[in-house]
């Protein structure tokens, strides 16, 4: 029996930038042209030398996803590499993981947690450009590079010497692509990180769906631009789609699910990730629990609820390891979300699921 198409709520809040009706046409169409780049600001910034916390950050980057990768995927890739050397296997196109969702849905927090890499964080619009993070296993010490093209088509490239500088490097690249106006751009930032303990994986963070039509005083339709960017990346068949939905928000508007459904109608590549379970309004816990149990808006591969670092945790310099302990404590003690099956909660569970799905796509 063939798998059934993904089920999504009939009404996402009406047609238009504020919502979507499942039985109506999608907005937009073909991807719109890239926004005109703003003038580049002054000379390319070179990151400072590694901080005293260098070794600690490297250890922290040995993430849950890296561990799951080492256990399940690397042995498979090693065998493929041997067959390729004997002429029995063609070049392998590795799958990537693309994270989509509304602005401030917790997308970057999810990526940070599973990868161990610090992404720019904050309220409102934070991810301004598509960011492709390529992690590579290497025998050499940790190193990173950033690459993008400026408005004149000239390649801009610089090195990153420490994990401490990754977040600033991303922010600097975004500013040089979009200018000080924090405009959203289709221009991609390519970041490559190499270290002995990193997995060979590609993660993509995309701008969140804009809930307003136009930029201040501008003519660019930001809603269409952000959804066009998402469509462009998730339509690739070798892509796993992480659809991030904040439980703290009105889950009647879950447009990211519909965008995923348009390119993956049977839900074979889509995993729902629910964020901010600790910020659910009092009295709404049972309703949110039904979503987390894959009952309200069923997905073929279901949902995994995670609790990541928030802005207060970051300001207090709480480490990813400490945040993981907090997450485990939350799911053990919360009167509602402790009822979830272990397969439906936790960042470690998400990492293992991603590893399994990646292995399926590779095979």
Automatic annotation (TrEMBL):
<dbReference type="Pfam" id="PF01031">
    <property type="entry name" value="Dynamin_M"/>
</dbReference>
<dbReference type="GO" id="GO:0005737">
    <property type="term" value="C:cytoplasm"/>
</dbReference>
<keyword id="KW-0342">GTP-binding</keyword>
<dbReference type="GO" id="GO:0008017">
    <property type="term" value="F:microtubule binding"/>
</dbReference>
<dbReference type="InterPro" id="IPR045063">
    <property type="entry name" value="Dynamin_N"/>
</dbReference>
<feature type="region of interest" description="Disordered">
    <location>
        <begin position="1"/>
        <end position="22"/>
    </location>
</feature>
<dbReference type="Pfam" id="PF00350">
    <property type="entry name" value="Dynamin_N"/>
</dbReference>
<dbReference type="InterPro" id="IPR022812">
    <property type="entry name" value="Dynamin"/>
</dbReference>
<dbReference type="GO" id="GO:0005874">
    <property type="term" value="C:microtubule"/>
</dbReference>
<dbReference type="GO" id="GO:0005886">
    <property type="term" value="C:plasma membrane"/>
</dbReference>
<dbReference type="GO" id="GO:0031623">
    <property type="term" value="P:receptor internalization"/>
</dbReference>
<dbReference type="GO" id="GO:0003924">
    <property type="term" value="F:GTPase activity"/>
</dbReference>
<dbReference type="InterPro" id="IPR000375">
    <property type="entry name" value="Dynamin_stalk"/>
</dbReference>
<dbReference type="GO" id="GO:0005525">
    <property type="term" value="F:GTP binding"/>
</dbReference>
<dbReference type="GO" id="GO:0098793">
    <property type="term" value="C:presynapse"/>
</dbReference>
<feature type="domain" description="Dynamin-type G">
    <location>
        <begin position="91"/>
        <end position="363"/>
    </location>
</feature>
<dbReference type="InterPro" id="IPR001401">
    <property type="entry name" value="Dynamin_GTPase"/>
</dbReference>
<dbReference type="InterPro" id="IPR027417">
    <property type="entry name" value="P-loop_NTPase"/>
</dbReference>
<protein>
    <submittedName>
        <fullName>Dynamin-type G domain-containing protein</fullName>
    </submittedName>
</protein>
<keyword id="KW-0547">Nucleotide-binding</keyword>
<dbReference type="GO" id="GO:0016185">
    <property type="term" value="P:synaptic vesicle budding from presynaptic endocytic zone membrane"/>
</dbReference>
<dbReference type="InterPro" id="IPR030381">
    <property type="entry name" value="G_DYNAMIN_dom"/>
</dbReference>
């Amino acid at each position: 029996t063939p798998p059934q198409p993904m089920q999504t709520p009939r009404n996402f809040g009406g047609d238009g930038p504020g919502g979507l009706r499942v039985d109506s046409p999608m907005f937009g169409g073909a991807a719109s042209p890239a926004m005109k780049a703003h003038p580049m600001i002054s000379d390319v910034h070179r990151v400072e030398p590694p901080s005293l916390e260098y070794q600690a950050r490297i250890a922290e980057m040995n993430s849950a996803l890296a561990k799951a990768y080492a256990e399940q995927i690397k042995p498979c890739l090693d065998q493929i590499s041997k067959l390729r050397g004997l002429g029995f296997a063609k070049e392998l196109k590795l799958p990537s993981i693309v994270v989509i969702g509304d602005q401030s849905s917790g997308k970057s927090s999810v990526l940070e947690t599973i990868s161990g890499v610090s992404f720019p964080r904050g309220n409102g619009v934070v991810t301004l450009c598509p960011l492709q993070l390529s992690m590579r296993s290497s025998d050499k010490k940790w190193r990173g590079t950033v690459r993008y093209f400026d408005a004149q088509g000239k390649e801009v490239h610089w090195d990153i010497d420490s994990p401490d500088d990754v977040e600033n490097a991303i922010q600097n690249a975004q500013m040089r692509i979009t200018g000080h106006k924090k405009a959203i751009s289709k221009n991609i930032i390519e970041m490559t990180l190499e270290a002995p303990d990193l997995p060979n994986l590609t993660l993509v963070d995309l701008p969140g769906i804009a809930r307003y039509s136009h930029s201040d005083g501008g003519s660019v339709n930001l809603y269409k631009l952000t959804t066009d960017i998402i469509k462009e990346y998730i339509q690739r068949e070798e892509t796993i789609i992480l659809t991030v939905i904040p439980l703290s928000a009105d889950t009647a508007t879950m447009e990211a699910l519909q965008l995923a459904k348009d390119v993956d109608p049977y839900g074979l590549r889509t995993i729902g990730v629910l964020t901010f379970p600790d910020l659910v309004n009092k009295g709404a816990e049972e309703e949110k629990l039904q979503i987390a149990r894959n009952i309200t808006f069923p997905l073929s591969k279901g949902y995994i609820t995670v609790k990541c670092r928030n802005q207060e945790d970051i300001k207090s310099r709480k480490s990813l390891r400490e945040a993981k302990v907090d997450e485990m404590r939350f799911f053990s003690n919360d009167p509602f979300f402790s009822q979830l099956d272990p397969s439906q909660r936790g960042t470690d569970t998400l990492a293992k699921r991603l590893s399994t799905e990646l292995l399926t796509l590779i095979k």
